[in-house]
Structures are given as C-alpha cells and as structure tokens.
Amino acid sequence: MKGPKSLSALMERLQSLPGVGRKTAERLAFHILKSTPEDVAALARALLDVKEKVRLCSICHSITETDPCSICADGQRDHGQVCVVEEPHDVYSIERIGEFRGVYHVLMGALSPLDGVGPEELKIAELVARVEKGDVREVIVATNPNVEGEATAMYLAKILKPANTLVTRIARGLPMGGDLEYADEVTLSKALGGRLKM
Amino acid sequence: MKGPKSLSALMERLQSLPGVGRKTAERLAFHILKSTPEDVAALARALLDVKEKVRLCSICHSITETDPCSICADGQRDHGQVCVVEEPHDVYSIERIGEFRGVYHVLMGALSPLDGVGPEELKIAELVARVEKGDVREVIVATNPNVEGEATAMYLAKILKPANTLVTRIARGLPMGGDLEYADEVTLSKALGGRLKM
Lengths: 198, 198
Hints:
Two copies of one chain form a homodimer. The first copy, chain A, is of the alpha/beta class.
C-alpha cells in the first residue's frame, strides 16, 4: 500500500503485535487516524508508562509497580501457601476466580530443553530458597498442563522433596461444560485417575 | 483484574480499539511488557507521528502527508477519470489492484439521514465543483453496495446530471469464487441485471 509514510510505518509496527495481521493493522491504523489527538496521546503515554513503571516483585517475581507487590505485602493473605505459575499473567488468571488466599511464585517460563530453557533460566532456586526458609506449608504447582508444564511440575516435586513441604498439583480433568465424547485420551485418563470421593 | 495500575490503564486504552476485547487487550498488554523499551517507544512514536503528519488532500480529501497527495500530484494519472469512494481507506483498496490510473474523490462517508448525515456533511459540493470545472470525463461511483452507499450513488447521479458528465457505478454481482447457491437474492438480481455480452 502506497499511502502516507507515517501510516505505513504505524501499520508495520502494529503488525508486529501478536494476532495482528495486515488487515487488522490497517483497520487499527485508520481508527487511530480518526481518533482525537488526545486519545492517541493517551494511548502512546500508556504504552510508555507500562514499560517505565512495571517491574518484577523481588519475592514472587510477578509484575508490580511497588516492591514487594501488593499480594506479597498483604498481611491478610496466607504466606504459607505458595502457588507456582509459569508467567505473571497466570497470577491474574487465578486472582480472577477470587478464591485463592495464598501467595504466588512466578517461574518466568517452563522447562524446555529444546529451547535451551533449563532450571537455571527459571526462578527455581528462588523458590527453593523461599521453601527452605521454613514458613511454607504447601507448594501448589499450577504450571500449564502441557509437556513443558508437566515436566516442570515433576522437576519441582523432586527438587522440593528434601524440604519436606507438601507439594500439590492442580487437578487435570474434564473442563466444566465439557463433553466426554470430545475429550482426548490423556485428559480422560487424568480425569479418571484423579477421581474424588463424592 | 487487580494488577499494576499502569498495566490496567494500558489494557483499558487498548480495549477502546476496534475488535479488541478484554482477552486481546490482556494479551497485547503482556506482549508490550515483554517487548524491548525501544520497540515500545517506536510504537508510541508511530502513533503520535500519524496524528501529527497525516492530513487531508485539499483536492481529493484522501489522507496524505503532502498537499496535494501523491495521486493528485501525479501528472501520469488520468485526471479526467474520478473514482468516488466513501472513506480514505477505500482509495488504498482500489490502489492495491494496481489497475486504476485515474484519480479519486473521497466523500468522507455516505448519506445516512438516520445518523444525521446529509449531503452537506459529505464532500459532495467539492465533487460538483471539480466536475463543473470541466476536465472530468467520467465519474465512477465506488461507494459501498449497501443501503447508504446505494442512496449516495443515486444522489450523486442526480446532482451530477446537469454537468453532462458520464457517471458510472461499479458492478454489483457475484464475487469471484462465489457460489450461486449461497448468493442472496439482491446480489443475484444485480448480477443478472448487470450481465455483459461475452
């Protein structure tokens, strides 16, 4: 497209965002053109703000503007229960259900030897240190139920064994609203193996 | 979601973009968080640049950084053939096929009495003035083939009649790759009525 140079430049930038192709970039760019200068300036400011202000919490490695983060600093929460997740956004997925009252530990990824991600690349040593300090009653491993997440969970269970802390794994099974007919074999096998007394 | 304030602010801003819901805004915001500061600064800059540099061409009302725009300033193009479109991005849709060698006229919308858009809100007087100057051989009406676009086309044909210029309308019919079985009645009727000798 041979349009104004700044418009092409914006489209190119927008296309580097996840899930944004040529058509979407075009639609967004034309929307920006029609927006008020104030709205565009506010969007640009919001983008820069996030990069300037957001850092990682020194305790749980989740994203925060203050250190420690609001969850780690919350005396009302149960600091003896640590939920281990792969990414900062996983914290918000769990917070959204509004039930978990413990704290978090973000690994910043999952073990993936093929991509060169070993235990040293993750915040595993930091987790072990937190557990060894002694006030952690339970470590809930909430890594993703895929190959990397499962491998990471197994590794954590092994490495935390000497600490003698309860290590649990979130349940894998049929999703609510799901259908036995369409469930894959591995999920069904996990659902059967993880059955609970009613 | 109770995350860092600047992150929530960014998500809210992103959600005001077309086609961006809560989930997409979250995904984009976390992508921004992971991007390098340089990339984010470049995106913010591109947003501001577009608003600062892009204006409307005083001849065709398409978007441009220079006035007149590169198409209106192009001596190689046929200035006697004016293609009328609703929005600036329609110009780029037609330019993409790379066949049209005439120039454009952007109406900045279509007639829509219910939304309070009458002829005065559109660049119709400007089109009439261009045609009355006398060097326009043909006006190709390429407004959208929907209620507003069709009404606008009919209005243009009527108002341009005294100028004695050829006014044509782009063909409405079955899209290439389409299927008679799935075509709606109006399209099929237009396709039949607009048949051409082979």
